[in-house]
Specification:
The complex is a heterodimer. Chain A has two domains: 129 residues, 3-Layer(aba) Sandwich (Rossmann fold), CATH 3.40.50; 72 residues, no CATH class. Helices cover 35% and strands 23% of the residues of chain A. Chain A contains eleven helices and nine strands. Chain A has a six-stranded mixed sheet, with helices on both faces. Chain A has a three-stranded antiparallel sheet with strand order 2-1-4, covered by helices on one side. In chain A, α3 packs parallel to α6 and α5 packs across α6. Chain A is globular. By secondary structure, chain B is mostly helical. Chain B has a single domain, classed as ABC transporter involved in vitamin B12 uptake, BtuC (Orthogonal Bundle). Chain B has 14 helices and no strands. In chain B, α2 runs antiparallel to α12 and α4 runs antiparallel to α10. The longest helix of chain B is centred in the N-terminal third of the chain and has 26 residues. Classes of the chains: A alpha/beta, B mainly alpha. Chains A and B meet through α3 and α4 of A and α8, α9 and α12 of B.
């Protein structure tokens, strides 16, 4: 990894299209170390595609992507500092795995082939379970967890990637009530502070995340707004905002202006 | 009865070969069930018939040609469904029926081999030769080494392929490796259960294990146990009642699954019903 002055994420005029349909258009974005960034936008705005581009899972049609100053594919080849938390609904919780199994699986890439998990891997996993306040659940089958607990397990897995510097979360609070949502974001804020993480969260919950993020990115195929949360609230209702379908996102009476 | 059975050379070979095949299939079935590859297993096993027929017609060792042929079909199914615009289940349907049709046409061209078609389809465990045992041992060793050495990597792609990819694992290599292991295992199983019935051994053991255990280690243990019990009971019953051995082994496996499905202490349907 390069020095800490190198931006964690750099996108330069990134375009992505599938079969001639543009999904992301002319996206340029720089995320500095230690920042907490919220990516918001309506369904189908290309949020998940943007995450996949950053993670090197989706090569851009044109434009440049840098993750810690390198191409994502190079960064991820021996990845031990990017942790990803996918939408939890995509995972099959009927499979016979315990919480500890899931977290150890997050370390497989950093251990290398032909070796089994060591004691130190287990210790690291326990440390991360403690960070998300689920140490007592290590041996619990994942099928017995609540949605919120599963989400925190996935965070502990992401933190167990080796030497985490960047945490990326895709819609982590779907189906979570507002008080728990705040608890969840406070957990992220604490992790950012304690571990020096950079955090990128895709979400629908503008009103909640704007309390925690340093930077907000509003996406609807193209990037409409990229600023701090206070500004996003001030410009609420402007032409740019309406292009981003903000009314729909905020809902009536949720704005803070 | 058992001593009488084992006095025959061909029975000894059947037990040894059958045990290797059933344990190998049971181990592999662990990943087939976790990664939901059971339908791709149907595709791979049925297409082996095309490869067998090709070998018979060209004079190449039929097991070798079947191995290569079904590996290629397995990869083709994988590539077409990942890169193309056709759903995986449709792709499998197309490939395996076409490969089987190809096999049937070729077999009809080679007049002498028709009598053996039934044993290719449904197995003939009593015809296992010493050379077959060597072949089984070699296939078993290669597949087992692959599964053991990359166990945690295969486990990781079975639960969450995306995370595995982000973690820097060669997901494509592992996935196609698993498909290749399935093709090799199918070919090794032809004499024991045949190309039509091998699918049962690639699914039932692990499906049974999953009903009996809440963790993957237990699932793997019960999977191997189911495979072994199916072989022993199936071979014994087929000897006593003069039944086709491959089909009897598969029926025993299915019976074990049915019992476990109903009466498993943790997940059994009837057990849960009575507990309320």
């Amino acid at each position: 990894m390069k020095g800490s002055s190198v931006p964690v994420i750099e996108l330069d005029r990134v375009n992505v299209s599938f079969d001639g349909n543009t999904v992301l258009e002319n996206i340029s974005l720089v995320v500095d170390p230690g920042h907490f960034v919220g990516i918001i936008g309506p369904n189908g705005a290309g949020k998940t595609t943007l995450l996949k581009v950053i993670l090197g899972l989706q090569p851009p049609t044109s434009g440049e992507v840098r993750l810690f100053g390198m191409k994502p594919s190079e960064t991820l080849k021996n990845n031990n500092y990017v942790g990803y938390v996918p939408q939890r609904s995509l995972l099959d919780r009927d499979l016979p795995f315990s919480v500890m199994d899931i977290i150890l699986m997050g370390r497989v890439g950093s251990i290398g082939p032909f070796k089994w998990f060591r004691k130190s891997d287990r210790a690291e996993a326990e440390k991360n379970l403690e960070r998300v306040e689920l140490l007592d659940y290590a041996d619990r089958p994942i099928g017995e967890l609540s949605g919120g607990q599963m989400q925190r397990v996935l965070i502990a897995r992401a933190l167990s990637c080796g030497n985490p510097r960047l945490l990326i979360l895709d819609e982590p609070t779907v189906g979570v009530d507002i008080p728990r949502m705040h608890g969840f974001y406070e957990l992220l804020v604490n992790l950012r502070r304690d571990m020096g993480l950079t955090i990128l969260v895709v979400t629908h919950e503008v009103a909640v995340i704007s309390n925690y993020a340093h930077q907000m990115v509003c996406l609807n195929r193209t990037m409409h707004v990229h600023c701090n949360p206070a500004e996003i609230m001030r410009t609420h209702g402007s032409q740019e905002m309406s292009r981003c379908e903000f009314e729909q996102l905020f809902g009536p009476g949720k704005g803070q202006d | 009865m058992l001593t009488e059975m084992l006095a025959y050379d061909f029975m000894q070979r059947a037990f040894l070969g059958g045990t290797i095949v059933c344990l190998l299939c049971s181990f592999l079935s662990f990943f087939v069930v976790l990664k939901r590859l059971s339908f791709i297993g149907v595709g791979i096993s049925h297409s082996a018939l095309g490869g067998l027929a090709l070998g018979v017609l060209t004079g190449i060792n039929p097991f070798l040609s079947a191995g290569v042929f079904s590996t290629l079909i397995a990869w083709a199914i994988g590539i077409t469904s990942k890169k193309g615009k056709v759903h995986e289940d449709a792709t499998i349907g197309i490939f395996f029926s076409a490969a089987m049709a190809f096999g049937v046409v070729l077999i009809s061209l080679s007049s002498g081999y028709k009598a053996d078609l039934f044993s290719l389809l449904f197995g003939n465990i009593l015809a296992i030769t010493v050379e077959d045992l060597w072949m089984l041992g070699a296939c078993g060793l290669v597949v087992t080494l692959f599964l053991l050495l990359l166990f945690k990597e295969l486990l990781a792609i079975s639960f969450d392929e995306e995370i595995a990819r982000i973690g820097g694992l060669p997901v494509g290599f592992l996935y196609y490796g698993l498909l290749t292991a399935m093709a090799v295992t199918v070919v090794a199983s032809i004499k024991v259960v045949g190309v039509i019935l091998v699918e049962a051994l690639l699914v039932i053991p692990a499906a049974t294990g999953m009903q009996l255990s809440k963790n993957y280690r237990g699932m793997l243990f019960f999977s191997l146990l189911t495979g072994l019990l199916s072989l022993l009971s199936g071979l014994f019953l087929s000897y006593v009642y003069d039944l086709p051995s491959g089909a009897t082994i598969v029926l025993c496996a299915a019976a074990i699954f049915a019992l476990v499905f109903l009466f498993s202490p943790s997940k059994g349907v009837l057990v849960r019903k009575f507990r309320g």
